[in-house]
User: What shape does this take?
Amino acid sequence: MANLDSKLKSPLVPLPTNAYLPQRDVEHRPILETRHLGINFGGLAAVEDFNITIGRTEIAGLIGPNGAGKTTVFNLLTKVYQPTRGTVLFDGIDTNGMTTAQLSKLGVARTFQNIRLFDNLTVEENVKLGMHNTIKYNMVESILRLPSYWKQERIAHETALELLSIFDMQDMADAQAGSLPYGAQRRLEIVRALATSPKLLLLDEPAAGMNPSETSELMENIIKIRDTFHIAILLIEHDMNLVMGICEGIGVLNFGKVIAKGTPAQIQSNPVVIEAYLGKKKEEG
Assistant: This one.
Protein backbone atom coordinates (compact mmCIF):
# COMPACT_ATOMS: atom_id res chain seq x y z
CA MET A 1 0.00 0.00 0.00
CA ALA A 2 2.98 2.34 0.26
CA ASN A 3 2.89 2.98 -3.48
CA LEU A 4 -0.79 3.89 -3.33
CA ASP A 5 -0.09 6.29 -0.46
CA SER A 6 2.73 8.10 -2.22
CA LYS A 7 1.06 8.44 -5.61
CA LEU A 8 -2.60 8.94 -4.82
CA LYS A 9 -2.94 10.63 -1.44
CA SER A 10 -2.67 14.38 -1.05
CA PRO A 11 -1.49 16.07 2.19
CA LEU A 12 -4.26 17.62 4.28
CA VAL A 13 -4.22 21.42 4.46
CA PRO A 14 -5.98 23.39 7.25
CA LEU A 15 -8.72 25.87 6.33
CA PRO A 16 -9.75 29.00 8.28
CA THR A 17 -12.85 27.05 9.44
CA ASN A 18 -10.64 24.52 11.31
CA ALA A 19 -11.43 21.92 8.65
CA TYR A 20 -8.85 20.12 6.49
CA LEU A 21 -8.85 19.41 2.76
CA PRO A 22 -6.45 17.55 0.47
CA GLN A 23 -3.95 20.00 -0.97
CA ARG A 24 -5.20 19.50 -4.55
CA ASP A 25 -8.74 20.56 -3.47
CA VAL A 26 -7.86 23.66 -1.45
CA GLU A 27 -8.52 26.11 -4.29
CA HIS A 28 -12.00 24.71 -4.89
CA ARG A 29 -15.24 24.87 -2.92
CA PRO A 30 -15.75 21.75 -0.76
CA ILE A 31 -18.26 19.31 -2.18
CA LEU A 32 -19.76 18.68 1.27
CA GLU A 33 -19.88 20.65 4.50
CA THR A 34 -21.94 19.90 7.58
CA ARG A 35 -22.32 22.39 10.40
CA HIS A 36 -23.47 21.29 13.85
CA LEU A 37 -25.56 18.51 12.34
CA GLY A 38 -27.70 16.50 14.73
CA ILE A 39 -30.82 14.39 15.08
CA ASN A 40 -32.92 13.18 18.00
CA PHE A 41 -34.96 10.01 18.19
CA GLY A 42 -37.50 10.07 21.00
CA GLY A 43 -35.67 12.87 22.77
CA LEU A 44 -32.33 11.02 22.57
CA ALA A 45 -29.51 12.53 20.50
CA ALA A 46 -28.41 9.88 17.97
CA VAL A 47 -26.01 12.31 16.26
CA GLU A 48 -24.78 15.50 17.90
CA ASP A 49 -22.75 18.45 16.56
CA PHE A 50 -21.45 16.54 13.54
CA ASN A 51 -19.07 18.69 11.48
CA ILE A 52 -17.25 17.48 8.39
CA THR A 53 -15.75 19.05 5.26
CA ILE A 54 -14.91 16.99 2.17
CA GLY A 55 -12.88 18.14 -0.83
CA ARG A 56 -14.11 17.75 -4.40
CA THR A 57 -11.84 14.77 -5.14
CA GLU A 58 -11.20 13.50 -1.64
CA ILE A 59 -11.52 9.90 -0.50
CA ALA A 60 -12.67 10.27 3.10
CA GLY A 61 -13.57 7.74 5.76
CA LEU A 62 -16.02 7.68 8.65
CA ILE A 63 -15.24 5.02 11.21
CA GLY A 64 -16.31 4.11 14.72
CA PRO A 65 -17.49 1.20 16.88
CA ASN A 66 -20.78 -0.55 16.11
CA GLY A 67 -23.72 1.64 17.06
CA ALA A 68 -21.67 4.86 16.87
CA GLY A 69 -24.17 6.48 14.49
CA LYS A 70 -22.33 6.17 11.17
CA THR A 71 -25.27 4.95 9.07
CA THR A 72 -27.50 7.55 10.75
CA VAL A 73 -25.06 10.20 9.47
CA PHE A 74 -25.36 8.76 5.95
CA ASN A 75 -29.15 8.88 6.26
CA LEU A 76 -28.92 12.53 7.28
CA LEU A 77 -26.60 13.39 4.41
CA THR A 78 -28.93 11.73 1.88
CA LYS A 79 -32.19 13.04 3.41
CA VAL A 80 -33.52 9.64 4.43
CA TYR A 81 -33.76 11.49 7.76
CA GLN A 82 -34.31 15.22 8.10
CA PRO A 83 -31.95 16.66 10.74
CA THR A 84 -33.29 18.02 14.01
CA ARG A 85 -30.67 20.76 13.84
CA GLY A 86 -27.69 21.89 11.81
CA THR A 87 -26.92 22.43 8.15
CA VAL A 88 -25.79 20.29 5.23
CA LEU A 89 -24.20 22.18 2.34
CA PHE A 90 -23.70 20.25 -0.89
CA ASP A 91 -21.51 22.07 -3.40
CA GLY A 92 -22.33 25.27 -1.52
CA ILE A 93 -26.12 24.70 -1.66
CA ASP A 94 -28.11 24.48 1.57
CA THR A 95 -30.04 21.19 1.35
CA ASN A 96 -32.52 22.05 4.11
CA GLY A 97 -35.95 20.63 3.24
CA MET A 98 -34.74 18.72 0.17
CA THR A 99 -35.85 15.17 -0.54
CA THR A 100 -33.61 12.22 -1.37
CA ALA A 101 -34.64 12.51 -5.04
CA GLN A 102 -33.77 16.20 -5.19
CA LEU A 103 -30.39 15.53 -3.64
CA SER A 104 -29.75 12.75 -6.15
CA LYS A 105 -30.35 15.20 -8.99
CA LEU A 106 -27.82 17.56 -7.41
CA GLY A 107 -25.23 14.78 -7.49
CA VAL A 108 -25.30 12.64 -4.32
CA ALA A 109 -25.38 8.84 -4.63
CA ARG A 110 -25.03 6.08 -2.06
CA THR A 111 -24.90 2.37 -1.48
CA PHE A 112 -26.41 0.61 1.53
CA GLN A 113 -25.22 -1.67 4.28
CA ASN A 114 -27.80 -4.22 3.12
CA ILE A 115 -27.71 -4.75 -0.64
CA ARG A 116 -30.74 -3.24 -2.41
CA LEU A 117 -30.73 -4.59 -5.93
CA PHE A 118 -33.68 -5.63 -8.08
CA ASP A 119 -32.90 -9.34 -7.98
CA ASN A 120 -35.26 -10.32 -10.81
CA LEU A 121 -33.81 -7.78 -13.25
CA THR A 122 -30.60 -8.24 -15.21
CA VAL A 123 -27.33 -6.66 -14.22
CA GLU A 124 -27.62 -4.16 -17.08
CA GLU A 125 -31.22 -3.29 -16.19
CA ASN A 126 -30.16 -2.54 -12.61
CA VAL A 127 -27.50 -0.16 -13.89
CA LYS A 128 -29.94 1.53 -16.28
CA LEU A 129 -32.28 2.22 -13.37
CA GLY A 130 -29.56 4.45 -11.98
CA MET A 131 -29.63 6.61 -15.12
CA HIS A 132 -32.94 8.31 -14.29
CA ASN A 133 -31.09 11.64 -13.95
CA THR A 134 -29.73 11.50 -17.50
CA ILE A 135 -32.21 9.57 -19.69
CA LYS A 136 -33.88 12.07 -22.05
CA TYR A 137 -36.90 10.33 -23.61
CA ASN A 138 -40.44 10.78 -22.27
CA MET A 139 -43.34 8.38 -21.79
CA VAL A 140 -44.84 8.98 -25.26
CA GLU A 141 -41.52 8.33 -26.98
CA SER A 142 -41.15 5.17 -24.92
CA ILE A 143 -44.66 3.86 -25.68
CA LEU A 144 -44.44 4.59 -29.40
CA ARG A 145 -40.83 3.46 -29.65
CA LEU A 146 -39.84 6.59 -31.55
CA PRO A 147 -36.30 6.98 -32.96
CA SER A 148 -35.41 9.26 -30.04
CA TYR A 149 -36.26 6.40 -27.66
CA TRP A 150 -33.98 3.94 -29.45
CA LYS A 151 -31.18 6.49 -29.55
CA GLN A 152 -31.36 6.97 -25.78
CA GLU A 153 -31.60 3.22 -25.23
CA ARG A 154 -28.43 2.69 -27.27
CA ILE A 155 -26.62 5.37 -25.24
CA ALA A 156 -27.86 3.79 -21.99
CA HIS A 157 -26.69 0.34 -23.10
CA GLU A 158 -23.21 1.59 -24.00
CA THR A 159 -22.94 3.59 -20.78
CA ALA A 160 -24.02 0.61 -18.68
CA LEU A 161 -21.37 -1.64 -20.24
CA GLU A 162 -18.74 1.05 -19.77
CA LEU A 163 -19.59 1.41 -16.09
CA LEU A 164 -19.68 -2.36 -15.57
CA SER A 165 -16.21 -2.60 -17.11
CA ILE A 166 -14.80 -0.74 -14.10
CA PHE A 167 -15.27 -3.99 -12.17
CA ASP A 168 -14.80 -6.26 -15.22
CA MET A 169 -18.51 -7.14 -15.04
CA GLN A 170 -19.51 -6.29 -18.61
CA ASP A 171 -19.78 -10.00 -19.48
CA MET A 172 -22.39 -10.37 -16.69
CA ALA A 173 -24.72 -7.75 -18.21
CA ASP A 174 -27.43 -10.28 -19.12
CA ALA A 175 -27.21 -12.26 -15.87
CA GLN A 176 -29.97 -11.96 -13.29
CA ALA A 177 -28.76 -9.70 -10.49
CA GLY A 178 -30.02 -12.06 -7.77
CA SER A 179 -27.93 -14.92 -9.17
CA LEU A 180 -24.61 -13.10 -8.69
CA PRO A 181 -22.18 -14.01 -5.91
CA TYR A 182 -22.32 -11.70 -2.90
CA GLY A 183 -19.17 -9.76 -3.78
CA ALA A 184 -20.40 -9.16 -7.34
CA GLN A 185 -23.72 -7.86 -6.00
CA ARG A 186 -21.79 -5.40 -3.84
CA ARG A 187 -19.88 -4.19 -6.88
CA LEU A 188 -23.06 -3.92 -8.95
CA GLU A 189 -24.60 -1.68 -6.33
CA ILE A 190 -21.61 0.68 -6.63
CA VAL A 191 -21.95 0.68 -10.43
CA ARG A 192 -25.65 1.51 -10.17
CA ALA A 193 -24.82 4.43 -7.87
CA LEU A 194 -22.24 5.68 -10.40
CA ALA A 195 -24.93 5.55 -13.11
CA THR A 196 -26.60 8.56 -11.45
CA SER A 197 -23.53 10.68 -12.40
CA PRO A 198 -22.72 11.72 -8.83
CA LYS A 199 -20.33 14.37 -7.58
CA LEU A 200 -20.24 12.65 -4.18
CA LEU A 201 -20.46 8.89 -3.70
CA LEU A 202 -21.30 7.53 -0.24
CA LEU A 203 -20.29 3.90 0.31
CA ASP A 204 -21.77 2.14 3.35
CA GLU A 205 -19.44 -0.78 4.22
CA PRO A 206 -18.51 -1.59 0.60
CA ALA A 207 -16.13 -4.39 1.63
CA ALA A 208 -18.63 -6.21 3.87
CA GLY A 209 -18.55 -9.94 3.12
CA MET A 210 -15.60 -9.68 0.74
CA ASN A 211 -12.50 -11.85 1.02
CA PRO A 212 -9.02 -10.22 1.21
CA SER A 213 -8.46 -10.53 -2.54
CA GLU A 214 -11.80 -8.90 -3.35
CA THR A 215 -11.14 -6.16 -0.79
CA SER A 216 -7.74 -5.39 -2.30
CA GLU A 217 -9.32 -5.15 -5.74
CA LEU A 218 -12.07 -2.93 -4.33
CA MET A 219 -9.47 -0.53 -2.92
CA GLU A 220 -7.87 -0.13 -6.33
CA ASN A 221 -11.27 0.37 -7.94
CA ILE A 222 -12.36 3.04 -5.47
CA ILE A 223 -9.23 5.01 -6.35
CA LYS A 224 -9.90 4.34 -10.05
CA ILE A 225 -13.46 5.66 -9.67
CA ARG A 226 -12.24 8.84 -7.97
CA ASP A 227 -9.60 9.47 -10.62
CA THR A 228 -11.80 8.55 -13.61
CA PHE A 229 -14.88 10.53 -12.63
CA HIS A 230 -13.13 13.23 -10.54
CA ILE A 231 -15.60 12.84 -7.69
CA ALA A 232 -15.43 12.70 -3.91
CA ILE A 233 -16.03 9.48 -2.00
CA LEU A 234 -17.05 9.12 1.64
CA LEU A 235 -17.06 5.60 3.02
CA ILE A 236 -18.07 3.82 6.19
CA GLU A 237 -15.97 0.74 6.69
CA HIS A 238 -14.84 -1.64 9.43
CA ASP A 239 -11.89 -2.99 7.43
CA MET A 240 -9.09 -0.79 8.76
CA ASN A 241 -6.64 -1.91 6.08
CA LEU A 242 -8.98 -0.50 3.46
CA VAL A 243 -9.67 2.73 5.37
CA MET A 244 -6.04 3.43 6.22
CA GLY A 245 -4.89 2.39 2.76
CA ILE A 246 -6.99 4.74 0.64
CA CYS A 247 -8.58 7.46 2.80
CA GLU A 248 -6.95 10.89 2.97
CA GLY A 249 -9.06 12.32 5.79
CA ILE A 250 -10.80 10.21 8.45
CA GLY A 251 -13.43 11.13 11.01
CA VAL A 252 -14.09 8.94 14.04
CA LEU A 253 -17.60 8.77 15.46
CA ASN A 254 -18.52 7.46 18.91
CA PHE A 255 -21.95 7.70 20.54
CA GLY A 256 -23.06 10.10 17.79
CA LYS A 257 -20.19 12.56 18.24
CA VAL A 258 -16.97 13.10 16.32
CA ILE A 259 -14.12 12.33 18.68
CA ALA A 260 -11.23 12.72 16.23
CA LYS A 261 -10.43 13.90 12.70
CA GLY A 262 -7.16 13.66 10.80
CA THR A 263 -4.91 11.67 8.50
CA PRO A 264 -4.68 7.88 8.79
CA ALA A 265 -1.41 8.21 10.72
CA GLN A 266 -2.94 10.70 13.16
CA ILE A 267 -6.02 8.53 13.70
CA GLN A 268 -4.00 5.35 14.27
CA SER A 269 -1.96 7.00 17.02
CA ASN A 270 -4.80 8.96 18.67
CA PRO A 271 -5.30 7.71 22.26
CA VAL A 272 -8.97 8.76 22.29
CA VAL A 273 -9.61 6.63 19.20
CA ILE A 274 -7.71 3.68 20.63
CA GLU A 275 -9.77 3.90 23.83
CA ALA A 276 -13.05 4.05 21.88
CA TYR A 277 -12.18 0.87 20.00
CA LEU A 278 -10.31 -1.10 22.64
CA GLY A 279 -11.65 0.30 25.90
CA LYS A 280 -9.76 2.07 28.65
CA LYS A 281 -7.01 0.07 30.26
CA LYS A 282 -7.42 -0.56 33.96
CA GLU A 283 -4.95 1.26 36.14
CA GLU A 284 -2.34 -1.00 37.64
CA GLY A 285 -2.11 -1.45 41.37
In short: The mean pLDDT is 89. The first strand starts at residue 12 and ends at 14. Residues 147-164 form the longest helix (18 residues).
